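Thread title: Can someone regenerate the structure for this chain?

I was given the following input by a collaborator and told the matching structure tokens would be attached. They weren't. Posting the sequence so someone can regenerate them.
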Amino acid sequence: MSPVEKDIVRKKLAVIIDNLKALEPIKGMSRADYIEDIYKRKAAERLLQELIEAAIDINTHIIVQIGNPAPDDYYESFIKLGELLPACQLVRLLTG
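Best answer:
Regenerated them for you:
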């Protein structure tokens, strides 16, 4: 990948990391408190949505950059990337 393409992936990874950190306080809530607090539920829902969208964007970007057609749907982006690149190869692709 060129530096610009790595930058795209790094920005998406930053979204994932930031959203996981933002979800930390919710993790400690009891189920009852979580269900009762609509603002926490909606915040968690949105943070997870952004996180998943960033992961899908990364998957699709890498799949296309290594010469494959874009996946047909979001689910396929995870399956296809897992089939195409073992985890160690993916790390080398992003860091090398």
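The chain has one domain: 3-95.
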